[in-house]
Structures are given as C-alpha cells and as structure tokens.
Amino acid sequence: MKAPDDCLARNEWICGAYLSTRRQVLSDAVLQHLELTSLAVLIALVLALPLAVLARRWRLAAGPVLALTTVLYTIPSLAMFSLLLPVYGLSAALVVAGLVLYSLTLLVRNILAGLKAVPEETREAARGMGYGPVRLLLTVELPLALPAAMAGLRIAAVSAVSLVTVGAIVGFGGLGNLIYSGMNTYFKAQVLTASVLCVLIAVAADLLLLGVQWLLTPWTRAARS
Amino acid sequence: MNTLGEAWDWLADSAHWSGSEGIGQRLLEHFLLTLVCLLISCLIALPVALVLGHLGRGGALAVNISNIGRAVPTFAVLVLLLLTPLGRYGEGPTVVALVLFAVPPLLTNAYVGMREVDRGVVQAARGMGMTGGQLLRRVEAPLALPMILAGVRLAAVQLVATATIAALAGGGGLGRIITAGFNLASTPQVVAGAFLVAVFALLVEGLFALAERLGPGRARQGRP
Question: What stretch or stretches form a coiled coil here (chain B) (predicted)?
C-alpha cells in the first residue's frame, strides 16, 4: 500500500484532512476548554461579588482585599498552577482553582470601582425614598455598577480562555493539550488549528458577554440616543 | 504541610543551586531574558506610542492592541514560533514571544498617557512658540511619564510570566525547575520552583512600586 501524500503526511500548517479526521478530538478539547473556563469564571463571580460589596461597605477591608488580589494576579500562571499541586493533585480542579484566583482579581477590582462610582446623590435620593441598605444595594448600586462589572467580566473571561492552555502541564488544558502534544510530535496543523480555535473562543466569549451587557443595561442605550 | 517542608528542603539543598541546570543559572537566565526583552520592547513601543500620541493618530490601534494581546494565548504563540524555522535558534522563539506580549501594555499606556496631557497646557506651549519636537520632549513626554512608567511595570510583570511559560516550550529560566519537577513527578521540586517564580515576580512588581514611590513627585499617581 502506498503512503498517502496528503497535507497530513507533508505536515503542513493548514490542513483540511486534519479537521475532518480529528473532528472528535477537536470537539472534546473545545468542550473541555469551555467547561474549565465557564466554571472558573462563574465561581469567581460568585466569590467576587460579596468580596467587593464587603470592601465597599467596610472601608478597612478594601486595602487588604485589593493588596491580596494584586499579589495573586502578579504570580505567573505556571507557578500558580504548580503552587496548587499539593492541594488538588493532577486534576481539572487544579486548573479551575488557578483560573478562579486570576478572575477573582479582575472581578473584585472592577466591581469595586463600579460601586465606588455610584454618585452619592443617587444613594441619598434612594435613602430619602425609604430604601433600606439591602434594597439600595440590589436595586440601585449593583445595577449602576453593572457596566464596570461587565467590563471586568469580559477581561476575566478572555484571559481565562487563554490561560486554560497552560493547564496542559497537568493534562487539563482543553485546546492547550493539543498544542502541547502537537509541540512534542512537531504536528504543525494540530498546533495552528488549536491556537486559532482558542482565539475564536476568546472572541466569541467577549461578544457573548457584550450581548448580555446590552440586554442587562437598557438604560445606557436610552441615555445615549 | 508535609509537601511544603519537602519543598523547603529541596530549596535548602545547596546541590540544587549550582551547575548549568541549578537555581542560580535559571535565576540568571530568567533575569537576563526579562531585562533584555524589556529593553527591546521599550525601544520598539515607546517611540511609536510617543509619536502617535503626539500626532493624535492611530489611537484605535494603540488602545485595542492590548485587548488583542489578551485573547492570544502565550503558550500557543510560543509553540507556534517554536515550530517555525525560528525554533532552530535556541532562545529565539522565547525572545520574540516575550517582546510580542510586552509591547501591547507599553504601547497602550504610553499612548493614553500622551493623549491625557491637559490640552490647555499643550496649547500654552504652542503659544509660547514651541515646535512639535520641543512640545513632545519638554511638555508631553514628561507629563505622560507616570502612565508610561505604569506601562513599563505592567510589561515587566507580563515578561516574567511569559518567560515562565517559555519553559513549557523548552525555553530557559525559572520555569524549567517547574517543568523538570513535573517530568520527575516530584511535587516538592514543582512547588519549590513555583515559589521561586512567585517571589521573583513579586520582587519585580515591588521594585517598580518602590521606584514609583521614591521617584520624582510628578512620576507618581500614574496608575491607570
């Protein structure tokens, strides 16, 4: 039997045969990539909201919360995953935990900035109308902080999509796994395809969140037009 | 706790500090990579940003390039470069990748800093008969300095992180201690390497913070 002379055999960068023969592998990697990213960003959001509200309400907490998140953000991703190794072992939880810590930084900073930007007059007006602290937070402060929070969420999501690839070091890197194995076998089509898919996921996540923001903040559109 | 103790023992072992793959050598590699690439990136990004900011042109590009940089995975770029002919030149792919990821924060911050200079001050300088070049050197650049320095700090931290990931793609630096630890399935070595990288990154960030605080008064309050 003659060896096939296609783009796979010639190890070309762009290869249609790769796409058709490895469809299953690619879709599994994309799925893992999406799972790890969305899980991490969601957990970070659930943690960041109370932290930011706490830092806003209780001024003394703001300094330490910001300092801690800055320190976390400064630690390079490979080191972050490695420092969590004794806690989580070689698992998907390790990658998710590392990503949560990064997303937490971006989200807390942005939500806090959004809460701080709520004008004092607005708060006074709501209090004058008899709003209690909880109702003030839920119906006035948080909605007004939404644009800043969403900006942070978009940055966190896009960064998380790109950082998941480093999870390949523990075997849970989504498309990063394909890039890692493609590097070791010098498989150009696999590395390029996985990289391009990664960027596409990041752009898609950004656009999706932009759409969510558009739907959640109708008042900003009314003001502009 | 046990792993932390073992990691500490690993760090305390003097045999791990010397030699061509020792901590000392890796530390030096990491430092040189970061420093050289920071200089190259500044030489590329700052003149472009200062001139664009002075002319008020190309703003969309200068601002959006940071967002694009965030969406492209560092690891993917390193591996892609490794598989190009550039991969044959030792640290070549690492240097190119490091510069590519350090340029966006430098460019964006310097450009925004230049554009945020008080227009009234710029017009007053023009009214005094300053030429474009004088305006750029004596008025705009000094006033934009805090933002430019904030960009340099961001770029430096980014460089330390990228240099670490370079170890995954065969580059040198402290990341190699981590990847070697993974290959040996030695958790103490992985944790010890990660600790060194984290301390290195925090030191770089801390040094810049200190420099900003000790620097001339007008270089302060430049956080974006």
Answer: none
